[in-house]
# Entry
Amino acid sequence: MSISTPASFATRNWASNVVYGAASVVVPGSVAELADVVRSADRVKALGSRHCFNTVADTAGVHVLSSGLPAEVSIDSERRIVRASAGLRYGDVAPKLHRQGWALANLASLPHISLAGAVATGSHGSGDAVASLASAVAGVELMTADGELRTYRRGDPHFDGVVVSLGALGIVTAIELDIIPAFEVTQTVYERLPLDAVLQDLDAVTGLGYSVSMFHTWRDPEVVDQLWVKRRTDAPGALPERVVGAVKASTKRHPLPDVSAESCTDQLGEPGEWYARLPHFKLEFTPSNGEELQSEFLVPRRNAVTAIATIRDLAQQVAPLLQVCELRTVARDDLWLSSAYGTDVLGIHFTWKPDQPGVERLLPLIERALEPLAARPHWGKLFTLDGAAERMPRLYPQWNDFVALRERLDPRGVFRNDFLARLGL
Ligand SMILES: Cc1cc2nc3c(=O)[nH]c(=O)nc-3n(C[C@H](O)[C@H](O)[C@H](O)COP(=O)(O)OP(=O)(O)OC[C@H]3O[C@@H](n4cnc5c(N)ncnc54)[C@H](O)[C@@H]3O)c2cc1C
# Structure
């Protein structure tokens, strides 16, 4: 058996703010090789495309890249399911689906992330009626600590616990995702949306399209800099020329001020394939800025307006460290550790300047302000780990069920790391 160890492998995450502590990195080429690694190691952690901003993916033991497993994408049109290898990126899978007339209901802002890594942290796109990427998971093949491959399908006991796993339950080798008929989308950007109009009728704004994002630098708190509306071409009606005072941008825009829009998916109302419009960024470019940190907090929809007003009150403290804040909605699901568990949510995302000490000083202020609004942190972005073990059971009704599931599937603690320990997992 030969398990390859890459000659050179980036030992940092995408944002370079985390240096991984892994003693070795392996790329198993088969499920059998993966089983050998898992059975023989004290500590193992799967690594996807390294796009998390915290240490959720770190380990002191062996880092396993699932990208070495045979790349499979097979479509079952009858069941409306695609089965794909866990290490593939959404951007690899999407065009293959489209060529055969199929689509995924949602994508994140970037197609560069791996299926398993995105699902493990509850990653999401935007849309009042569109739930997280994890909600599309219909089945998971999971290698547990004993080296056995277990399959969990929607409806099976513990399925809802297994999908958003933070990598704590084992290594996912393949994922089944729901597919829907392919569709086309237009993307239109409006500029300078009065915040008051958003607070008065948030539903009217987020209901403008299939997927809607607002970008706010909080430099002028009363004006949301950009409103991005992604609309299915088969939706009835048409977009207005103005949205409560905001006007359509006449050229392509990047969400970040003063950054070229070359990396962004096409706008100006030009129809395109679902996978070429739902993400903000194109696969062949660096997404976002590349020099940044990120945090995100998701609040139940009923608290959304109060939460936006709360951030407005903090604008003076937030703006100096901020590149841009994105507001978007995610529909509810039933996945135990999903930030949209049991409720529709509004995501309040922050793209920070790359000043980690500054961000770490500011986060407790934001977290304290949003705590009464039941804000859940994005698992893959920066948040305060102090006190997290006490906070999480209050935020996630099935937290203790997940703790029990983790103990049952990984009694040796093979997949644990410091991040999970600080969450009490
Ligand atoms: C520029 C940028 C834009 C982003 N935009 C969005 C966005 O629009 N929406 C959003 O929700 N998030 C967004 N994110 C965050 C991103 O979606 C998450 O961090 C996601 O988890 C990254 O996936 P990954 O493959 O890089 O995971 P990694 O960082 O490699 O790993 C994440 C977790 O998944 C686990 N994991 C990975 N592979 C496996 C496997 N095979 N089996 C079991 N566990 C596994 C790891 O152990 C770890 O716990 C963005 C990040 C960046 C850098």
